[in-house]
Amino acid sequence: MSPLISHPHAISIVAFSADGPVTRQQFLSDAYQLAEKLPEGLHLLNLCSDRYHFSVGLAAAILSSKVSLLPPTQTLEVIRQIRQFAPDVFCLTDNKQSPEGLLRFDYPAMLKAPIDEIAVPEIDEKQQIAIVFTSGSTGIPQPHPKSWGGLVDSVRAEARRLEASESSVLIATVPPQHMYGFESTVLMAWCNSLALSHAQPFFPADICDALASVPAPRVLISSPLHLRTLLNSGLEVPELQHVMSATAPLAEEIAREIETNWNCPLTEIYGSTETGQIASRRPTRSPAWQLFPGIEWIVENSGVQASGLHIDPPVLMNDAIEPVSEDLFLLHGRMADMINIAGKRHSLSGLNHLLNSLTGVLDGAFYMPDETSDVTRLAAAVVAPDMDAETLLAALRKHLDPVFLPRPLLFVDALPRNSTGKLPHSALKALFQEHHTWTVPTNHPAFPGHFPEHPILPGVVLLDEALQRISDKHGIPPDRFEISSVKFTSPARPGDRLLFQHKTQPNGTMRFDITSGPRKIASGSISEKS
Amino acid sequence: MQDNPNSALQREVAQLMVECLNLEITADQISPDTPLYGDGLGLDSIDILEISLTISKRYGLQLRSDGADNQQIFGSLRSLCTYIAAHRTP
Fold first, then answer.
1. Domain limits, chain A
2. Check: CATH 3.10.129.10 for A438-528?
3. Does A200 touch chain B (CB under 8 A)?
4. Percent of chain B with pLDDT over 90
5. For A342-426, which CATH class?
6. Helical spans, DSSP H, in A311-366
7. Is the pTM of this model over 0.80?
8. A449-485 pLDDT, tens per residue?
9. Distance from CA of A16 to the nearest CA of B (A)
10. What's the rounded Cα separation, in Å, for the pair A465 and A460?
11. Are strands A20-23 and A103-106 parallel, antiparallel or unpaired?
12. Any idea what the CATH number is for the domain that residue B29 is in?
């Protein structure tokens, strides 16, 4: 057994709610009040957007032996699958949004805590308190049950890597409904006598407001995306004790700028939904990650597995891991099948499976360009002659978190499959490179005269752009081309984003198409002078 | 008749969004009342954060979500521009 929260006194501060500091006594009182009111179902979807409400909901669920379900996203399709998994599931919410078809229970108003001290409940380490889901490779969410004891081990190990004291306040930009936020912002506070802030700041100014609204020492728990935006905003950041980052690797120069500008250490956390957090590093000190005490790697032909502490059975990692000593390792990016966009993970084969299961899609594939920043977008190519982009994206949106929607989405006549039907990454890459886009500059020199107040890009400029691209691709100088036919269908205006596609026809001529969204701008065919 | 100053701002912000987010549409295809999230333009929270940084720098304002209400500010091009017009520093 271990205590629900480690705060030593009834008057210890466990959180800062929207109304101010919350004592251990009030928190336990709120949790017991909510536990009495919750619907009968043994599974709940805790969608509270206020982190304090979420933590009371989680505590109330634990006290009444209910299991909190944490799906990767809340699309209609995922909610349907969650209901299939647990037909008694209901949703606890404190905001307007709640998924259709789920019994909804609103976070209630709470009474003031009684005067008599409420004892801190002891929780059985084996009690299953949560099931976290990952998006499986077949489109069905995969459940990962989490026991109280395993989670406690994990966040106690994390705390040892953090410069925090008993009065530190955790302020987080990441939601508690995903594994990183669940562990690092809620359980972390509970098990290490820290206080959590109710806020879920989003914009840089929100983050500064949330930090300023609680007393120092403050710990910011965030992701590369939010940290980079906050840094670039140039806003004055209130005094910080420590910054934590996870979900994707943070560029070393950003880590260095943060440590210099905000005058505090930055630690990155590494983990996965399946394992929880298992390692950390100070990117300004060393590129190597250090495993938490008690965690070890099992290296096998199939890959690297994590084991030890609460991880039983061992878990195969989705990242390319190179152990360099007993507890140090290097990360070399994700394995080919795992997509990570701003911390949201999805299996590439799962995405392809979904795309090909849509009515009207004859063949299709997602493509992940080489990562150049902390947010790289997916692209996709489809053979779907009777569908338009809008219909296809609407169908995908029912199943997918919007960060996985392809951009660009190319409609092609065939995918570049090889003779065995496989689709090599290099062939897909070439396909997307052939589809160049160009945004017409608003200050193009042709506009003032063509035509005053009604700027339209002259056809000759368009044609020149198209020829240049084909020339670059095939290594033929533009003056070697002969234009057999060209048709201008619709005008190109300043700011239009043009997509250039070209293809060599069986007779050796090259056909090109220029489009802007659904609009055809021009098409034509050319050949090399003999 | 004078051009509505809001529609000039809407054109400008639409253009910023297309350039900043590499959208596959043109600025004049974003109508003032199309939802920017979900079924409309299909922007997600990553886009919103990226565009907010550009807007902050261009118009000298800081976007605030006031709780969970950035869905409202980014409800449509029109509501975003109303917010910018009310908070910009000239």
1. 2-285, 286-334, 342-426, 438-528
2. yes
3. yes
4. 6
5. alpha beta
6. 348-357
7. no
8. 777 778 888 888 888 888 887 777 667 788 888 888 8
9. 15
10. 9
11. unpaired
12. 1.10.1200.10
